[in-house]
Amino acid sequence: MSAVPEFDELIHAPTRLSIVALLAATEWADFTFTRDSLGMSDSALSKQIATLEQAGYVSVRKTGAGRSRRTHLRLSATGRRAFRAHAAALRQIIAAADAADAAAR
Prior knowledge:
This protein is an alpha+beta fold. It has helices spanning 9-12, 14-24, 31-38, 42-54, 77-104, and strands at residues 29-30, 58-63, 70-75.
């Protein structure tokens, strides 16, 4: 079932779009893996995760204690729906641009 296209300003910010896209490809992702994959600092990733978590798009799970404490991130069902809808909206925009370009040739 394809998503109904719906542009999402919260997800569209490049950093958050990168985070959501990475999390969409996995069940849970380690904070360190996410940070390193996206080339972000701890503080920058934490800030964006907090924004996504507040919107209900990301779930955060902390495990362990002391030096072995780990933070895991997951795209929530709401976040997955929002990402699918946003991606569909972007595909629709690109298709319209491609059609206009083809017609102009």
